[in-house]
Amino acid sequence: MASATGSGARAVDDAEWNEPRPNQVFAGKMTTEVCGQIANGFLTDVDCRDFGVDVHQIAEALTTPTCQLRRLIVSRQNFGAYGAKELGAALRTNKSLKELNIDYNNIGAEGGKEIGTALKTNNTLQTLDLSENRIGDEGGKEIGAALKTNHTLRKLNLALNGIGAEGAKEIAAAFQTNNTLKELNLMGNGIGGGKEAVRAAWAGRSTDLLL
If pLDDT is split at 50, 70 and 90, which confidence band does 22 have? Predict the structure, then answer.
């Protein structure tokens, strides 16, 4: 059905009204409709913190070729390692996402490994917040291994994750080859002797390091 907005106005048909429009922002509860709008490229910025989400639906939407989402916040969902696995798989193919916040989701070591594995091949993500997820040393080591080959991530928040000295040292070792990470937060991890290793590896960078 066509519509017009006044004398001489161009008619707009239903198909055109339904075309994806860029730079759209959504904040609220994730629904099937919202996931569809992510998949078809309508939404570029989605914030669902504190609202219930179906992480599988979100991950599927992120893998569609038409997805244009650049920023996604799905914090405080408690989706655990399962959710991290779903999102990790999506990150391996998604080409649009620049910022991802999944803090306080209890993903644990296994979830940390899933995200770390994804970062080894993802080449679009620039900001990642994994704080308060209990990834521990094992998850920290996998993130460190990923940073050795990932050259797009600029900001990484790993605060309050139970990462110890071993995990911190693996992260520090990545800075021998990684020169693109500009901000790193490792506060509240009790990394002990790993603190000096990280500080030494970071030396010479005029960017933010929080220990």
Answer: low
Between β-strands 99-101 and 208-210, what pairing exists: parallel, antiparallel or unpaired?
A: unpaired
CA 63 remoteness from chain centre:
14
Residue 121 has pLDDT above 90, yes or no: yes
Mean pLDDT of 67-72: 97
Cα within 13 Å of Cα(35), Cβ side: 16
Non-local (6+) Cβ contacts of 188 within 8 A are 159, 160, 161
Q: Please give the model's pTM, rounded to 2 decimal places.
A: 0.88
The average pLDDT across 79-95 equals 97
CB 183 within 8 A of CB 207: yes
